[in-house]
Amino acid sequence: MLLLEIKELFSLKDYLLTEIKCLEYIENSIHDDILTMEQCQVYNYLMQSAVKNKDSENILTYINKINDRLREINQEKYRRECCELLKILAETHKAISEKISAINYALSAYESASIIGDNELISDCAEKAANIYNQISDYKNALVYYKIALDYAMKVGEPATIATIIGNMGTIYLAISDYSTALDYFAKALSKVQNTNDFQSQSLFLGNIGVVYVRLKDYAKAEYYYNQALQVAETQDLQPEVARHYGNIGNISAFQNQFEKAIEYYLRSLEISIQCDYHAGIRRMYGNLGSCYRSIGYYDETLQYFQKSLRLAENQSSSYGIAIQYGNLANIYSEKAWELYSIEIGLEYAKKSEAIFRELGTKKELMQVYELLSNIYTELKDWESHAQYQKYYYEIQKEIYTEETKQELQNTTIVLMEKQQEILTQKNNDLEKLIKEKDEFLKIASHDLKNPLHSIQLMAQYLLAYPDESLQEREEMYNDILKSSKKMFSIISEYLQVHRGEPVGLNMKIKNYNVIALLRQILQSFKIAAQEKNITLNLNGTFDCIYIRCDENKFVQIMDNLISNAIKFSSFDSEVIVKYAFNENKVRIEVRDNGPGLTDNDKEKLFVKYAKLSARPTNAESSTGLGLYIAKQLTEQMDGIIYCQSRYGYGSSFFIELPGYVEQY
Predict the structure, then answer these.
(1) pTM as predicted
(2) What is the DSSP string of 20-40?
(3) Number of folded domains in the chain?
């Protein structure tokens, strides 16, 4: 019962009381000669709570407690439990930026897991070690342990874990500027989660692909992938991810010197970060805004944002964030155009940044600080210090981008070649399927386009041959030409919409609309088409003021497909009825025709691309077999459903249901 209470308190972020309850549990339940997985869970909650409470004294005390337990217990008897404690110690030392100790504990956990022989545990421990190596820019060792983690994860077969490891390997290639390989890894990671409900990972990997294209300065592709990532995050209400991607899109504008546009995106990201209490996002956006204002010469605003970011980093005990802002402040105080320019203050902040990055062991950031210090000493005409930091800069650059590391990474590419070949094979199969679909469409299109095109040709020839034909006759032919061209345009438009390489219905603008007004407007556009067959169009419903939540253009497109089909398949001198109703927060719209109805075989093929049904249009109208497919895609993307009720010989009713409400007076 006490463990359940501890879990509940931790989930409520009451970390102080969590600590108290954990200590109570340890005092009452833990004996020297026994170690259980439940006890390990309690130690984990204890350490996490102490880290959250930022109580360094308690953290050290609890680390000693766990080490005491490891010395007291029979490790051969309780090897799995001891492995869990080592993992806890590794995570704790990582959280408090003691990376060397963190690595040592992670490696000890890995050795213990290897003795146990549990594939999942070995993969987890190897990944923890790799993550720490990656964090301190030791890419060679990071890669070694990611490869081990991946090998064992493949044996377990959990796609999410495999995707995470491959994605982390992609970040290493990105860090050493091997962009083509980074893209391959991120694409592979994405493929592992593409058809799952792991939307957060989908959004993450799409965003990572965007980062690669930013590094390649292909900003158009970068923006495309960032927008894809943003769409996934917004659809699933992943607010921190939404904030992150708005910030990334802002970066693209900043890199292209479109600073006002960048500031708009950063402010949007900041707003969302504040709303969802995403502290890291708030801190980063303050820093990004400061950098933008610095670029356009607004140094007072720059200082304010850098100081805000620094205060947040200090409150969050983020050593990395503090070091970044010290570097930013060093840059602004080194800016001669600023009235508060002070190269001495700039030097002071740069040295503070250097000290923290040295302690953290993050080599890439340290390299940037060395370059900054070299420039500052040049300004101070301290040539000896300038030369020293130039030396530091080139030494660490060589260490990060060593050829040995690159070769190690290239060798790892071979390990995954077989898996990448599987992806290539799948892509080839998908391509073959797409080619077949296009061939099938071209057969349909060649038939459907031939008749209207031939009609236009004959009528144009007739008008040229008989220029003195009566005005009424000419006007009728002009109208026929217009109708034929519209048929051709409709066929081509549907083809392009399905095959332009992206899903139907992107970039929707969802708003509330009066459904009755929309339906009247749509029916009016079909007045002439209905008159040609002497078909009456009727609209009726149960409420006077119903609002529907949709994208107006997409809703019109759906109804165009349904109503044009109803007219197309209804007999002459008949009726098409459009009804609207409201029930349980849904607006239901019915389009009922007087056509031949659907057979059971027809019903199975409804809403499928290029489906050819048994019924034929009653006035030789064209039909591509795409209209209902597109209608289904658009309806579902607006959180709606579409379905049909039909009895062969008695016509058909097509229904769509979308969110909505009735306005109350």
Answers:
(1) 0.54
(2) HHHHHHHHHH--TT---HHHH
(3) 2
